[in-house]
Amino acid sequence: MYQSTDLEQLRQDNPHAMHKTPFEHQRDAFEKLNALFTFSDKEHKAGILVLPTGAGKTFTSVNWICRNVLPKNVKVLWLAHTGHLLEQAYKTFESNLLQVPQRRSVNMRLVSSDPEHSNASQIDTSDDVLIITTQTAISNTEPAALDATGQPRKTAFEKFLEHSRQSGLFVVLDEAHHAPAYGCRNLLIGGNRFADGIRQKVPNSYFLGLTATPSYSDARRRGWLWDIFKDGIIHQVEKADLIRQNILALPQYVQKNTGQDIAVDDSLFDRLVRQHKDLPEDLIERLARDSGRNDYIVNDYLDNYQVYGKTIIFADRWFQCVYLKEKLMQRAKERGITLRADAVYSHVDARAGTVEERNQRNTAENTRILRQFHNNELDVLLNVRMLSEGTDVPNVNTVFITRQTTSAILLTQMIGRALRGKAAGGGADKDVANIVFFVDNWKKVINFATPEGGGREESEPRTRGGYPIEFISIGLVEDLSRQLDSGLVFADHAYLDSLPVGWYETEVLASTGEETDSFREFVVVSEKCQPKFVRFIAHIQQNLPAQWEDDSLDEAYAQQQAALWIAGFFDLSDNTSKLLDADLIKIARHYGQTKTVPPFQSFVERNKHDLDKLAGDLLEFNEFVVQDKLHATYHDSAYLWQRFYKSYDRFRTAFDSARNRIYHIRKFGSVPELNLPSSTPQTVEQRELTEDEKQQVFQRDKYTCLCCGKTYGSKRRVTLQVDHINPFRFGGETSLDNSQTLCSVCHKDKGINEINFRVHRSRLLAPKATLEMKRPSSKESVYVEEEISRIVNLFYGCKAVADIIWDHRPRSRNRYQWELILFEGNNPAWLEPHKLALIAFIRKEMNCPLLEDITIR
């Protein structure tokens, strides 16, 4: 996304343009910014502007930059960690360019991984305002790439920074509380990853951080924050002050349960909990098409329309907008309610693949409907997130968020559409903003973003994966279901064995894709495992590698390390939840980033909830006494039984299960042997082939790595391993058909991806963006075919290489010109953009300096 604006023409076209009037707190911020950033001596300055969500951080900073930075021909680098924030900044610059005096033109570029934005290679030294995700900036700083001569290659971003030394560079970091993150910190001021940061590379640079609350409980991160922003807080405004001034409305959070039950298989659970990604598109589509769920949303609005008033409804698909709109109008008419509703949705669905979706709305129609909503000619406006940022409709009373999301920043943007108070045009009667969440019944605890009750400030860690009591509840209910599935209402262990002795509270900065956030997560610890956790933590305090400090920690590496820790400190029976590896990773990341052991909180009420004791106390009483006691105990607020079991029937069943066990012990003096389903659904044999089966795989694959072609023999030490083609953790079977032979290097490089090297045709829908080339352990040219095969086969995701023709003999034509032959069905053009880098890699790393070209066919 790029535009070059002729400012002189813009002024001529808008001679009577009306500029937005800043609030008093914004004018105060302008004065403080002017005082710090004088630009007179070109001395580095760095400070933070603290404004709560909804107070106009983006407008305040952009408006001041247009009037005070761009006129001095100082370049602007705007960093944010999501595409939503980038687009908001880009639109704000567009609407404030008339404020730029003196200059004739301004060039703006927006860069991210989004296909509608510019890519990093298009960055130009002529750009005046570069708006880019922090992650893209980091990945384009000092990359390990070589040019055709074997020299380090400079990215377009690095050239932009170098060129900025002439003019000066004003760097804005949105969500500045993320500055202490390993990658961001290194980008700005240098460190272990980059020797020099922007501060050193561009001495006449200036840093402005934007955040709501620049606070950290961890002293280490707090110290980093003020190392980066050495001049401290420039100006700070409290949310409570803006609410008192009626600039912001008081948010009122309302949660509505749709009653929709959603099962969570291992693949979805892994995506949402381990990979911290949002819902997959197919599930979003299913929710959007669920007429019963949509009807619930419609009825809730109509039941409360007088309270909700002017409302924005955030949906996920254009057809969901159409359905909701038609049902709202139809049922309002049936109830005798006068209602005006319409929808806009092309902005996002223009990215969809079908003509039908793209043609549902045109820009002119959307503009007309938005104008009607602005002018109070509509009561309800439905949209596909196109109003999540940048659209100013101050008198909105309510927002409907129709499904849960793991994206904290998206949630914040949607909530922000209703937070304008009376003084900001929110309406004379607007005291509160209704934020209505529609939630479903998920079968496991998922990392959904929440406003944390009264509203979470940006720098506060977001609780991810649920609170300890939720984990305990799910464990107890799953345990009860296991008993019922067996046909026996009979506990097979003491009740307190199911309750933890406490939990560790971890806090981690994590980057997932192009979003970074601070997360609070809990690790629930059983009595049996507590000493094992203590030994594990003592071990990592002395032996944790430095890369655990990185907020973009490689997932495959973390999983491999966690597997070694489980083998070294725990038993298979300790992993009944199948999340032990994730728990160890949480603790290790916390220690790596903070250099402190996560605090442990004992479950002080554990013994108070001994269901065995209650069952024993009531064992000899009649059913009338038992029923009365159980009802009273379940509903007693001094206990947690309602939070554990959610319903009295479950609690009663759990009690009966415990009572039957206690009865058998007292009558017969022992616990009977029960054949209940194991709480650990997979055993070692199910996760791994037997030794005989492994030999069958090796024999079938001719004791050869199917990726690189390395073969086991007496003259060479080769470690061969049996690999799951579709990984076990994603539901892959432990079978001969789902197994393949790989060497230890290829097995590590494949990681947890699903790649079948037994087939010769790629299943990828599009080429990968990069060609991964890792330095080989040996530079002997005799192994060059193995190294190239590994690189290319991993790139195509199959055994794509049919032959490599090369010859080191002096008179051979293939000494200088090599041929790479692919099996049919693999597009050679995919490799062409990476050919020069591959040639440079082979020359330097494989001791083949005479190579001039490679023909790929």
From TrEMBL:
Pfam families: Helicase_C, HNH, ResIII. Residues 38-232 form the Helicase ATP-binding domain. Residues 297-488 form the Helicase C-terminal domain. Keywords: ATP-binding, Helicase, Hydrolase, Nucleotide-binding. CDD domains: HNHc. InterPro entries: ATP-dep_DNA_Helicase (IPR050615), Helicase/UvrB_N (IPR006935), Helicase_ATP-bd (IPR014001), Helicase_C-like (IPR001650), HNH (IPR002711), HNH_nuc (IPR003615), P-loop_NTPase (IPR027417). The keyword Hydrolase applies. The keyword Nucleotide-binding applies. GO terms for molecular function: helicase activity. Gene3D superfamilies: 1.10.30.50, P-loop containing nucleotide triphosphate hydrolases (3.40.50.300). It comes from the Bacteria. This is DEAD/DEAH box helicase family protein. It comes from Hymenobacter fastidiosus.
